[in-house]
């Protein structure tokens, strides 16, 4: 029986690259998307061509009922869930004094409540089997805070707190919970940055480049792999030394 992984926000960027990384290891992959259905379905075809089972699941992670339906469908399609990667997220830059109540709720709803919803939906199956890996996505801004990204930083700091606490709670059930906190990664999330800003960010990074989705996928894979089996409650930070 194949090992299985459900990856939220896998229609593009870090999530899509993570899906490819797990497919290379023979995992059956659940590709969650919110609005990019065509891209998720294209990725599913790509993964199937690699010889693994894959299926796209549309669900807004901020919506409890949609997440419950997605996890239920995944479990009936694949039988069990070995790994959950809570990667779906949004970012926005604005002055703190301009953040509206609705923008704050949306940021926390997707980036933090989304992790809560997915973990709560997926854990009963893992606890029953006394086995599982959960990997959450924070950000270096969740570790140190970013100017003009207060809501994002708050949500991502929350993800770190959730990860550490949950790791202690479900460790005795044979489940590890770890967090990956990337630095600046070349994806559509940073698509609005001009070349000058990207160059400045690369210059500020000791390793003198922005990260790639593959850099992050490798860290996620490590935490799911046999080599990562004694890690739990940890924050692994592929950031080129930007934050140490
Ligand atoms: P991205 O390229 O913008 O992709 C975001 C993904 O999240 C897309 O697949 C999108 O799906 C999905 N998504 C957004 N809202 C969703 C929702 N409500 N429900 C379900 N899926 C949703 O972002 P990325 O750079 O790959 O980032 C992935 C994760 O890494 C995020 O959690 C992000 O905060 C974190 N991160 C990124 C960076 C960076 O520099 N890029 C740095 C640190 C941390 P649809 O297109 O289908 O809507």
Order of helices and strands: EHEHEHEHEHHEHHE
Number of domains: 1
C-alpha-based Rg, rounded: 17 Å
CATH level-3 fold name: Rossmann fold
Helix and strand composition category: alpha/beta
Major sheet summary line: 7 strands, parallel
pLDDT < 50 stretches:
none
Q: Provide the spatial order of strands within the biggest beta sheet.
A: 3-2-1-4-5-6-7
**Portion of residues in helices?**
40-55%
Oligomer: single chain
Describe the global form: globular
Distance between the termini: 40 Å
Number of extended strands: 7
Mean pLDDT across residues: 98
CATH architecture name: 3-Layer(aba) Sandwich
CATH class (first level) name: Alpha Beta
Bound molecules: NADP nicotinamide-adenine-dinucleotide phosphate
Write out the CATH superfamily name.
NAD(P)-binding Rossmann-like Domain
The number of helical segments is: 8
**Beta strand %:** 5-15%
Structure description:
With 244 residues, the chain is α/β, with parallel strands linked by helices. It has one domain (4-236): NAD(P)-binding Rossmann-like Domain (Rossmann fold). It is built from eight helices and seven strands; from the N terminus they run βαβαβαβαβααβααβ. The chain has helices spanning 13-24, 37-49, 64-78, 101-129, 140-144, 150-170, 195-204, 213-224; strands at 4-7, 28-33, 54-58, 83-86, 132-137, 175-180, 235-236. A seven-stranded parallel beta sheet has the order 3-2-1-4-5-6-7, with helices on both faces. α3 packs parallel to α4 and α4 (101-129) runs parallel beside α6 (150-170). The longest helix has 29 residues, at 101-129. The model has no long low-confidence stretch (mean pLDDT 98). NADP nicotinamide-adenine-dinucleotide phosphate (NAP) binds at residues 8-15, 32-36, 60-62, 87-91, 110, 137, 139, 182, 184-185, 187-190.
